[in-house]
């Protein structure tokens, strides 16, 4: 045979096999027997073996061609793969619809309703119609490139079909394992004394992340495509429905249960139907996805930082199981919040073994009346932390123990505080090891002490190497210690030491904000420093002294009092002072604090002052409790004399009214401050 004819023959064979693959795997309508199919495949393999020069990666023979890998290289998605907002309640879904109607100024919004397959999201890139990359979702921006494994999945085309093939497209879909395949796999694993997978989702994820694509090839994974980014394409669909139709034409498997609806009530109806019928499906679903149909409207709505505004995941109610509370412990979060957690007799809920469930806070725990030893219903919805739904109080024996929240922090043993109107107990110890990372990052942040170069990564390094255990340790660092850190040169070490040094003389308001007192943001810190002239005054102030300040309510004042009542915090403040951290109080323009010298006295000005305008000087007097007169009278206690005084000076001298020069006046203003 002439070589050109052979090339044609190979090409023809591949097209025939692709068509059969499509009919078999995608639309379940095979037109040949398995024997006939195998014969075609053998013929192609033979020809490719004799003529390796015609072998291409998109050939149907090349699905399992990769070698075991060392790891998965990163893959940058052309557009972030965002996660969807979740709803469980019908009202939340109606609210979603209302919001879209409002934003789009439409009375009715059209949606596509899709099943939410319980698998893992994947992004597939095709260039000139050929699969070039397949990557997991990862953090949404960058995923893991698992192309050799992706190629083994028969429902993923290696080459796109049809006549409207885009130059570059990224197709998104869900990789999953069917229930039968899952059961077969677990039987095999059990027979080989390997641990079975807990659920099909984990099995799919584990199979896709195999370093050896030959293992993935045995795992019967499937794909449903549900979205696409057309990067270079002459064709662009206008609706989600058109897009899904287009994906089918390109050779993808799209879930057959998609529905186009013209109202949210129809979507809710479909949800109710699947809630009872989901068990009949051959794969697991955990809800529905409701997507705005018109793509132009989508771009009008845009996305928040985490999720698109045009879609919502409408999940099924949490599945619940019965188990016992073995104990209750308290966790300290990174912001100091104490959360009671029920330790459970391990229980399998929807395929996941649950050993702990959150009790949220003291009020919730009391409202549900959860006691140690209780039988409880525990619920889990999707990736949400499992929670105790309710107690089966009929099963109580009388030996159950009521749990008391601790009065000290489990991580640092400092007394814990509960803020006014808050459900949570908090540890506000600045040195609490459970929180120190957050505290130091906040301390160094731009609006606080503004220590340039001290970001999250470096804080982690400093804590891991034990160079910094408390805030005050920052001011004990030296260049030699810093240079020993990874990725730290002498220059950046020097810069950091300088930045830390500069932070010793920041404004008091920044310092107060940097302390991270609950409810004391930069604005409140500013109000405090406008009112008080030193840190000491704030520490010693009583609740009444806070409450007379405009902008400070009982919640804030209680929080400040709590903070300074912790001995650990006062010790730390002393340490900081000893290490040279002396926040400065900016010169006051205004003060509402009465000052003895001015209190109740009347002042008169004459001439021009060099450091103040007349208005500023008068305000200073008034703010210190004094009064300002317009003319000489027996009421005037002092005449303040500037440059080129007027006739008032002579009159004052006649009446024996004491005189103040501008510099004497300034001295009086600044005394006590
Ligand atoms: Zn603590």
Automatic annotation (TrEMBL):
Q: Which domain of life is it from?
A: Bacteria
According to its UniProt record, this protein's enzyme class is: ligase
**Known catalysed reaction(s)?**
NAD(+) + (deoxyribonucleotide)n-3'-hydroxyl + 5'-phospho-(deoxyribonucleotide)m = (deoxyribonucleotide)n+m + AMP + beta-nicotinamide D-nucleotide
Which Pfam families does this one have? Answer: BRCT (PF00533), DNA_ligase_aden (PF01653), DNA_ligase_ZBD (PF03119), HHH_2 (PF12826), HHH_5 (PF14520), OB_DNA_ligase (PF03120)
Q: Binding of NAD(+): at which residues?
A: 34-38, 83-84, 114, 137, 174, 291, 315
Keyword Ligase set for record:
yes
Instruction: Tell me which Gene Ontology terms the entry assigns under biological process.
Output: DNA repair; DNA replication
Query: What residue stretches are annotated with the BRCT domain?
Result: 593-673
* Annotated residues for binding of Zn(2+): 409, 412, 427, 432
Matching InterPro entries: BRCT_dom (IPR001357), BRCT_dom_sf (IPR036420), DisA/LigA_HHH (IPR041663), DNA_ligase (IPR001679), DNA_ligase_AS (IPR018239), DNA_ligase_CS (IPR033136), DNAligase_adenylation (IPR013839), DNAligase_N (IPR013840)
> By its UniProt entry, which CDD domains does this protein fall under?
BRCT_DNA_ligase_like (cd17748), LIGANc (cd00114)
Q: What GO annotations for molecular function exist for this entry?
A: DNA binding; DNA ligase (NAD+) activity; metal ion binding
NCBIfam families for this protein: dnlj (TIGR00575), PRK07956.1 (NF005932)
Keyword field:
DNA damage, DNA repair, DNA replication, Ligase, Magnesium, Manganese, Metal-binding, NAD, Zinc
Protein's UniProt name: DNA ligase
Which residues constitute the catalytic centre? 116
User: Is Ligase set as a keyword in this record?
Assistant: yes
Cofactor(s), by name: Mg(2+); Mn(2+)
Q: What is the lineage of its organism?
A: Bacteria, Pseudomonadati, Atribacterota, Atribacteria, Atribacterales
Family (UniProt): Belongs to the NAD-dependent DNA ligase family. LigA subfamily.
Give the EC number(s) listed in the UniProt record.
6.5.1.2
* Function of the molecule: DNA ligase that catalyzes the formation of phosphodiester linkages between 5'-phosphoryl and 3'-hydroxyl groups in double-stranded DNA using NAD as a coenzyme and as the energy source for the reaction. It is essential for DNA replication and repair of damaged DNA.
């Amino acid at each position: 045979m002439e070589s050109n004819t052979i090339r044609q023959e190979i090409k023809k064979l591949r097209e025939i096999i692709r068509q059969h693959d499509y009919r078999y795997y995608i639309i379940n309508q095979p037109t040949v027997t398995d024997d006939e199919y195998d014969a075609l495949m053998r013929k192609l393999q033979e020809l490719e073996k004799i003529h390796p020069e015609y072998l291409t990666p998109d050939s149907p023979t090349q699905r399992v061609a990769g070698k075991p890998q060392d790891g998965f290289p990163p893959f940058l998605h052309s557009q972030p793969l965002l996660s969807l907002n979740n709803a469980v309640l019908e009202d939340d879904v109606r609210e979603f619809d209302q919001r879209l109607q409002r934003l789009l100024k439409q009375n009715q919004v059209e949606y596509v309703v899709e099943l939410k397959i319980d698998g893992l999201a994947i992004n597939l890139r095709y260039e000139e119609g050929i699969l070039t990359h397949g990557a997991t979702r990862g953090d949404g921006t960058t995923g893991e490139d698992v192309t050799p494994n992706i190629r083994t999945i028969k429902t993923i085309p290696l080459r796109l079909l049809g006549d409207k093939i885009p130059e570059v497209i990224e197709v998104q879909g869900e990789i999953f394992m069917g229930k039968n395949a899952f059961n077969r796999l677990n039987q095999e694993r059990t027979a080989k004394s390997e641990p079975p997978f807990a659920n099909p989702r984990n099995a799919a994820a584990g199979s896709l992340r195999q370093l050896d694509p030959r293992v993935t090839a045995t795992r019967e994974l499937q794909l449903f495509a549900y979205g696409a980014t057309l990067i270079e394409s002459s064709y662009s669909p206008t609706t989600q429905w058109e897009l899904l139709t287009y994906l089918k034409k390109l050779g993808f498997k799209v879930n057959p249960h998609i529905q186009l609806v013209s109202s949210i009530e129809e979507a809710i109806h479909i949800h109710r139907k699947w809630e009872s019928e989901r068990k009949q499906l051959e794969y697991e679903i955990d809800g529905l996805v409701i997507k705005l149909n018109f793509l132009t409207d989508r771009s009008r709505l845009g996305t928040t930082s985490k999720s698109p505004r045009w879609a919502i995941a409408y999940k099924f109610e949490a599945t619940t199981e019965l188990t016992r509370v073995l104990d209750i412990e308290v966790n300290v979060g990174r912001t100091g919040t104490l959360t009671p957690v029920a330790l459970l007799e391990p229980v399998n809920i929807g395929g996941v073994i649950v050993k702990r469930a959150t009790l949220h806070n003291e009020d919730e725990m009391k409202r549900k009346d959860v006691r140690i030893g209780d039988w409880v219903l525990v619920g889990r919805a999707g990736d949400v932390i499992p929670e105790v739904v309710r107690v089966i109080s009929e099963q109580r024996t009388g030996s159950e123990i009521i749990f008391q929240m601790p009065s000290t922090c489990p991580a640092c043993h400092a007394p814990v505080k509960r803020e006014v109107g808050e459900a949570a107990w908090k540890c506000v110890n600045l040195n609490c090891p459970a929180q120190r990372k957050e505290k130091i990052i906040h301390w160094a942040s731009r609006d606080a002490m503004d220590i340039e170069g001290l970001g999250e990564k470096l804080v982690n390094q400093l804590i891991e190497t034990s160079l910094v255990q408390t805030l005050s340790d920052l001011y004990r660092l030296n260049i030699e210690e810093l240079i020993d850190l990874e990725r730290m040169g002498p220059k950046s070490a020097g810069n950091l030491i300088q930045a830390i040094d500069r932070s010793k003389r920041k404004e008091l308001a920044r310092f107060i904000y940097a302390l991270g007192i609950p409810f004391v943001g930069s604005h409140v810190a500013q109000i405090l420093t406008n009112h008080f002239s030193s840190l000491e005054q704030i520490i010693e102030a009583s609740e009444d002294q806070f409450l007379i300040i405009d902008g400070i309510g009982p919640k804030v004042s209680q929080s400040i009092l709590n903070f300074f009542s912790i001995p650990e915090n006062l010790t730390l403040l002393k340490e900081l002072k000893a290490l040279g951290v002396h926040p400065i109080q900016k010169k006051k323009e205004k003060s509402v604090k009465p000052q003895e010298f001015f209190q109740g006295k009347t002042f008169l000005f004459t001439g021009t002052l060099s450091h103040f305008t007349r208005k500023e000087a008068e305000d200073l007097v008034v703010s210190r409790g004094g009064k300002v007169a317009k003319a000489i009278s027996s009421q005037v206690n002092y005449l303040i004399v500037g440059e080129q005084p007027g006739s008032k000076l002579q009159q004052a001298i006649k009446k024996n009214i004491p005189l103040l020069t501008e510099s004497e006046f300034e001295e009086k203003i600044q005394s006590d401050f």
